[in-house]
Structures are given as structure tokens and as C-alpha cells.
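Following the same procedure, sequence and fold were stored together, as reproduced here.

>
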Amino acid sequence: MSHHCRSAGQSETGKVRRHNEDAILVREDAGLWVVADGLGGHAAGDLASGMIVDRLAALPRRGQLSDFIDAIEDALVQINAELLQIARHRQVDIIGSTVVVLVWDRDVMACGWAGDSRAYGSAGGPLRQITRDHVTGARDDQTQFSGTPEQGPPGALTRAVGAQEALYVDWVLVPADPGARYLLCSDGINKEIDDEELAFEFGRIRDPAAAVDRLFQLALGRKGRDNVSAVVVSVED
């Protein structure tokens, strides 16, 4: 690979929640970054997000980009089945997590997600959201799950790992040119920082670790209503 990536990540409980149900993964060696957000208010959200990060941390990087994406999807599908089984055994409705994944290859980035954890990207232009939230309308502070967009209250999740028998992960390809920069985050970031402010801060701070520090300073300096997690990735010459 002619280019390389610099990255940084952080995850904290926030100012309201008792436990951190988020988990992050930073694997520059494998070109893999992950943010997983266990479903707040449900049983063992930290178990779900932790399973995702642990399994993806152990995946070997072999073959082409498509092979690695297939391995990631296979791992998430297996986790989905295991979480459904654990939930049935514990007699609870859902043990689940949203997830957003970024995978780097020589010429392109692949971003996959299920739920409302987000990815933003900047490649020769302003920062913009590159994922689309799997929710019914506008979000509320409390995460709820609804099986389809036609059911449930506004803002309810319609997709998550561990929430339905069949798991579907959406993917999008984005540039991996030098200077391209990406942000993965749980909703603890975008609950406190709107897209315009995110773009401003991201545009003025180039270093990944400094950018993460600034986002946490802003989010935790406000209400900090949810767990807060962010990973910033920069493609370098």
C-alpha cells in the first residue's frame, strides 16, 4: 500500500449513564476501525458491543478487500445469531448493538453499518455524513427498537446486531486518497454536536488525536446524555 493511515479513538461513559455500553476498535495494521453502541435501556448492551469489537479485533486480514468485507459480515451475522440465543436464554427482549465499520484498502475505503452509529467523511470538501441512520424519523434521547420503519415511535431503531433474525449491513465505498479523513461515532457525539459544528471542528483540526480530544471536550462539556465514542482516521501520503 502506497499510503498509510493515522488514527485515534476514545470511548467514555458520559455524564448521565451509569455504564459505558459503547466499544471501539482501532486496527491500523489491518486497516479496520469500528464503533459499536450497545442498546441503551436494554439488557447487556455492553456484552453486545464488546462481542462485536472482540470478534473483529481477532479477524485476520487476508485476500482482497471484498474477502475482508465478507469475513466482517460473516462475523457480524454469527454474533447476531448468538445474541438472539443469549436473549432467549435470559428471557429478555433484546441484547443488541449498533455498529459502524470502516475498512481501508489501497484505493478505496468501505464503510458498513447497522443502526444509527454514524460515519462522516471529508475528501476534498466539507465533512458530510456518509451513513444513513436506520431509524424511524427524528431521534430521541432514549434508544428504542422497532422492527420496521412503519412500526414504533419516531426515532426508534429499525436495525441493529442482535435485534432481528436476519441481519443486513449496508455498505458504501468512499475515497482513500491522501488527505481524506473520516469520523466514526456513537450518537453520544451527534446528540451534543450538530453536523455544522462537527464540520467546523473537523476542518480546523487535522491531527486525529487532537480532533478526538476536541470532540470529547465539546460533548462532555455539554449535557453528555449518552456514552460518547469517536474514532478519527486520516489517510496520509
Remarks:
- Residues 65-90 form the longest helix (26 residues).
- The helical segments are 45-57, 65-90, 187-190, 195-204, 208-220.
- The domain at 4-236 is CATH 3.60.40.10 (Phosphatase 2c; domain 1).
- The chain has a mean pLDDT of 90.
